[in-house]
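Following the same procedure, backbone shapes were mapped to integers, as reproduced here:
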Amino acid sequence: MTNTATGPLPASVLEALGRYDTPTICNAMEIVAPERRLIGYTTKQLVCPFPDLPPIVGYARTVAIRSVLKSSLPAEEQSKRRIEYYEYVGTGHGPRISVIQDIDGPDVGYGAFWGEVQSNVHKALGCLGVITDGSIRDIPQWAPGFQALAGSIGPSHAWVHAESFGGEVRVAGMTVRSDDLIHADRHGAIVIPLDVAAKLPEAAELCGRRETPILEIARSPDFSLEKLKAALKRSAEIH
């Protein structure tokens, strides 16, 4: 059983954010927090084996893993650390998203932390998905509905283990701290500051309204450069 504390934001805000894809949320962020235009989102391509799953919105559970080097801890201490890790993942604000940095340097992705077992365990612990620059495996046996964005897909877990958890991680160019609010889909992920989260749905709608006149003329059989210029002018006047 997981322990989900009341989050800092109402569930209705998370539900509203989940109605938009991640690029739209990025567009909306440019309106409500323009100073974050160059930070806070993934900048490197990640593999998404389940592109048709809807966007996920949840609070980060951060982990650093490695697989090239065997854990130096005794077996008993490794078992204790594993339980402590699961306790961390399964408690706190919910819903949750695992954000995992592979710290194997040039050998990132050498061993997969994620597969059939971990996807099902983390889903049971209250997670909606995983974002990692490491590798994943067991795609056909993956937990149903559990989203995944990964650096690669590979066959073996090598010596993979959690080196630390609860600290700051950096995955595909995105820096994440424990309990950060994350929005993710097949395109990538973005950290949403809590103080602007409730403003994003309205900003996303504004983005859509501004795009409408441009898309209408671009898709029209009567398209012309002059009509595009007029559509751009109408778009700029929408507030």
Remarks:
- Residues 200-218 form the longest helix (19 residues).
- Residues 83 and 195 are 33 Å apart (CA to CA).
- The chain has a mean pLDDT of 95.
- The domain at 11-194 is CATH 3.50.30.40 (Glucose Oxidase; domain 1).
